[in-house]
Write a structure and sequence with these properties.
alpha/beta; Aspartate Aminotransferase, domain 2; seven-stranded mixed β-sheet; binds pyridoxal-5'-phosphate
């Protein structure tokens, strides 16, 4: 039996793993100290727990603990990094490079900086959603400060050629930042080998609590400076003031250690379930997979059901949680659709016929079967209605 509703929107957020909740629990009521209270035991215990989490995260990225800064999430990490570098290095240059498929937390921050006088290049992607490293190389000028390209896309699952982009940036002495929010736990990161100078992610996308995230910021070869965006008591090496979210960070540390322990098995299971889902959905006529067929997230499918409105489809599937390609923050109503689907060449109509499936740790084979059956039936029903409409 399938428990309803079925959650298949793991790119939006994930449930907190029970083991994470358990690890956090003592830090609410018992070990509630402030890490800045250096004079007593309450502070020491809190600080030790935070430093332990910092070490776990540094180990995952092949970084040093002092290179891990805690924030409130990937949105803040992206803002801190992009605005922080732009301000700290404005005497050196004024040019920023990013891609057309970034999360709004990167794109909108870059557009804000453009309004403030910085020059912005938004690189196009190919039909799979990949940035061409040669385009990065060509876009770099004497004035370029930074390239920001996400690790893996949150809508279509495409994995970007990070090593190649990192090598180019390193050769040209330009900072390389990656939004790794969807990549953590799915692809292996070695920030040194990959020439990544800064990396952002959020806890709640990897079974940790909401409201906590990470900015990895390289401390040597080269050391990256930032202008802080949050002035105050000088927490997090002065880069991000504010009392440290101890329970959240403890939870994030636990979430990262779970992701690391089960990395191979979990990705294997996820890709098997995802492949099973695609196998079944492919049997529906006139469907198309978006994103890179090979270099893609183990848990993602983005599917266009031609001739079917995805929002109508979702309205019929009230006990399945999915996301549609029309999801957009812009205010121009119908004309607006996912900038990611637009960037890979989908028309508005195709984007409005697109669903995103995000599988996760608690997805079962029964759920995959249930979802594929429901979708198949409903797509057929909606298509037969629209045919009748034409007649
Ligand atoms: C979810 C997400 C973010 C934003 O994370 P928050 O936790 O909302 O700050 C940024 N980038 C990507 C790729 C995401 O998927």
């Amino acid at each position: 039996m399938v428990h309803l509703p079925v959650y298949m929107d793991y790119h939006a957020t994930t449930p907190v793993d029970a083991r994470v909740v358990e690890a956090m629990q003592p830090f609410f009521t018992q070990h509630f100290g402030n890490t800045a209270s250096v004079q007593h035991r309450f502070g020491w215990i809190a600080k030790e727990a935070v430093e332990q989490a910092r070490k776990i995260i540094a180990d995952m990225l092949q970084a040093e603990p002092r290179e891990i800064l805690f924030t409130s999430g990937a949105t803040e990490s992206n803002n801190l990094l992009l605005k922080g570098i732009a301000e700290a290095y404005q005497s050196k240059g004024n040019h920023l490079i990013t891609s057309a498929v970034e999360h709004p937390a990167v794109l909108e921050t870059c557009r804000y900086l453009e309004r403030k006088g910085f020059v912005l290049t938004i690189l196009p992607v190919d039909s799979f959603g990949r940035v061409n490293p040669r385009d990065v190389e060509k876009a770099i000028t004497e004035k370029t400060l930074l390239v920001s390209v996400m690790s893996t896309n949150n809508e279509i699952g495409t994995i970007q050629p990070l090593e190649e982009i990192g090598a180019i940036c390193s050769a040209k002495n330009i900072f390389f930042h990656t939004d790794a929010t969807q990549g953590i736990g799915k692809i292996v990161f070695n920030v040194k080998e990959m020439n990544i100078h800064a990396l952002s992610f959020s806890s709640h996308k990897i079974y940790g609590p909401k409201g906590v995230g990470v900015l990895y910021l390289r401390n040597k070869n080269p050391k990256v400076f930032l202008e802080t965006q949050m002035h105050g008591g000088g927490h997090e090496r002065g880069f991000r003031s504010g009392t440290v979210n101890v329970p959240g960070i403890v939870g994030l540390g636990k979430a990262v250690s779970l992701v690391q322990e089960n990395f191979i098995d979990e990705n294997k299971t996820l890709s098997e379930l995802r492949n099973l889902l695609w196998e079944k959905l492919q049997k529906i006529e006139n469907v198309k997979l978006n994103g890179d067929p090979v270099r893609r997230l183990s848990n993602n499918l983005s599917v266009t059901f031609n001739g079917v409105n995805a929002d109508m489809l979702m309205a019929e599937l009230t006990d399945i949680a999915l996301s549609s390609g029309s999801a957009c923050t812009a205010e121009d109503g119908n004309a607006s659709y996912s900038h990611v689907l637009k960037a890979i060449g989908l028309s508005a109509e195709e984007a409005h016929s697109t669903l995103r499936f995000g599988l996760g740790r608690f997805t079962t084979k029964e759920e995959v079967n249930y979802v594929s059956e429901k979708i198949t039936q409903t797509v057929q029903k909606l298509r037969s209605f629209s045919k009748e409409g034409v007649r």
